[in-house]
UniProtKB/TrEMBL annotation, chains A, B:
The keyword Hydrolase applies. This is Alpha-aspartyl dipeptidase PepE. It comes from Psychroflexus torquis (strain ATCC 700755 / CIP 106069 / ACAM 623). InterPro entries: Class_I_gatase-like (IPR029062), Peptidase_S51 (IPR005320). The keyword Hydrolase applies.
Length: 233, 233
């Protein structure tokens, strides 16, 4: 299994996927065709437009990108994909469609069998055990919150530190994750924007220049440094 | 129907429910007993502790407060309640329990029949058509996102304006609400902290000193002034 699990597709002051390009050139070095799954996007743009955006973002890598919606048989398209990229948007919308089209298992199998995977934001959330640590609004009702389970923890993408000066009474991200852990014994990795996890079979490293915040049930949250190996056993 | 639908239980620099007390003295003037529903709270405190907090907050009104968890028959307790207060916490957790215990209909009926209602945060979200515009994390899986439907729109509690200086790439609240409306033709009222809706039968007014942000599907979002009457027909 080879995967890049990124907190965000885009960092401030840079274009779509730009900060990931050197990594992606290596990650996708042995493939020609990348299958793009545009299902998370609800924001007024079509699957065609979103796929066009992915194509443009990945252009410097010189790969062919096709959207899953272009295929008659999406199961077959995933099963035979050389490489897979699941883009961001709304995690509820993405998970609903993957379940309803029966694609969760075939996606897991394809990645397990070695198709290099790229996830950004919602596409990273689904790599964990469940989508229950998403920041997204429940704009649709998925048949289940279970996701790929290719990691034995959950991701919180776009992890944000509490604003200590804020007078706002809505819960902080850390409070929300602790509420989740009051009811679910699942480790959560808070990935700051600009960070990604590099998954190489069972070895998982935190990449780029940011620490990540780790929430283990029943423990105080702590930071891990860039280049740390994640190992919770 | 008489209801106070508040964005938050607590405003900065003030104690639990304090800013609402003058309003609640009038709202609950004709009742002696208030039934408190503590089900939204996941954060390490028990239903007893949360009910104690509600009791303390409402003490200046001189009412008796009992938690729904203290009753053997919660349906009967709701049906015979003089007044009802549903506190904040996690909306997924609240909605899951109300559905699973079969309490959504009996709650709607009691409020419809005239029991004065107070909702704060999650307790306000459930007054709308669905819980789909909550800001909360999906820490549990409810059997449905449908809620009381005593308003013909949805609430977004703790409404927060975009931080124009932010470099964070997570979606703004406004973006999330628009994503919801790409898929659901439902009006959303963004209630800023410190605001509440006063519902008096079919008349709904925005109370206190803040404007509210109104999202009608297919239109630009707009503001309504304090004391405005909400009328979307």
């Amino acid at each position: 299994m080879q995967a890049i699990i990124a907190s965000t597709s885009t960092i401030h002051g840079s274009s779509y996927l730009e900060y990931l390009l050197p990594t992606l050139e290596t990650h996708f070095a042995d493939v020609e065709d990348i299958l793009f799954i545009p299902f998370a996007r609800s924001g007024g743009i079509t699957h065609d437009d979103y796929t066009e955006k992915a194509k443009k973002g990945l252009k410097p890598c010189g790969k062919n990108v096709r959207g899953l919606h272009e295929f008659k048989d999406p199961k077959k398209a995933i099963a035979s994909a050389e490489a897979i990229f699941v883009g961001g948007g709304n995690t509820f919308l993405l998970v609903k469609q993957l379940h309803e089209l029966g694609l969760m298992d075939v996606l897991r199998t394809a990645i397990d069998a070695g198709a290099p995977y790229l996830g950004t934001s919602a596409g990273s959330n689904i790599f964990g055990l469940t989508m229950q640590t998403t920041n997204d609004m429940p704009i649709v009702y998925p048949p289940s919150f279970k996701t790929l389970g290719l990691l034995d923890f959950n991701i919180n993408a776009h992890y944000k530190d509490p604003d200590l000066k804020s007078t706002h009474k809505g819960e902080t991200r850390e409070t929300r994750i602790k509420e989740f852990q009051n009811l679910n014994s699942v480790i959560v990795v808070g990935l700051r924007e600009g960070s990604w996890l590099k998954v190489s079979d069972s070895k998982i490293t935190l990449e780029n220049n940011f620490s990540a915040r780790i929430f283990e049930p029943g423990q105080l949250a702590y930071e891990i440094d860039p280049n740390a190996i994640l190992n919770f056993n």
